[in-house]
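Colleagues,

For the teaching module next term, I've prepared a clean inverse folding example: a structure given as tokens, and then the sequence designed for it. I'd like students to try predicting residues themselves before seeing the answer, so please don't circulate the second half yet.
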């Protein structure tokens, strides 16, 4: 068994820091990178009502941002019959996937449940831009104006939606990155 020499240690250190001293971001995963088992890997079941919450923290998907959006256990996984958020082809988000169902994190209790979140201004030109099947605070009621959820640090969005005057927020599982699972 041989210990590395001091010269080898210095060589290794300088190799690591070549270029920049930027601290490396903690390792995160995209939804797609977790493969077909992603939903299982990202949820913990309470075992009682079959409610599933996020087992990993939710992070802004923009490279180099890394703002923490939601801590573990705060978002509840829900299934929706289709794609809710509008898709802009110039956005970094994956194109809408094949038909339903789609999955979202429901945060029922308002902005303070988030670690960091930003809101777009309500869209006054189009009061009802989301599809009819979009979940709302109170099912069946006419929802208020849509306020999209965006990253509080870098404004990337929409990551999800909420309604003016409502408490709940919803985040698209495919528009986030996920912290490492506890092992
Ligand atoms: Zn961000």
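(Answer key — instructors only)
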């Amino acid at each position: 068994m041989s210990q590395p020499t001091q010269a080898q240690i210095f060589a290794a250190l300088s190799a690591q820091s070549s270029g920049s001293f930027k601290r490396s971001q903690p390792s995160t995963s995209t939804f797609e990178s977790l493969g077909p088992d992603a939903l299982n890997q990202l949820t913990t079941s309470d075992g009682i009502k079959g409610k599933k919450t996020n087992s990993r923290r939710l992070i802004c998907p923009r490279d180099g941002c890394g703002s923490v959006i939601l801590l573990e256990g705060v978002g509840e996984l829900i299934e929706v019959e289709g794609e809710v958020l509008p898709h802009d082809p110039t956005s970094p988000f994956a194109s809408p996937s094949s038909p339903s169902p789609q999955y979202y994190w429901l945060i029922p209790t308002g902005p303070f449940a988030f670690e960091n979140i930003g809101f777009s201004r309500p869209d006054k030109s189009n009061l009802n831009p989301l599809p009819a099947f979009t979940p709302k605070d109170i099912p069946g009621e006419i929802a208020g104006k849509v306020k999209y959820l965006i990253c509080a640090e870098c404004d990337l969005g929409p990551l999800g939606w909420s309604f003016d005057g409502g408490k709940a927020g919803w985040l698209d599982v495919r528009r986030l990155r996920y912290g490492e699972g506890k092992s």
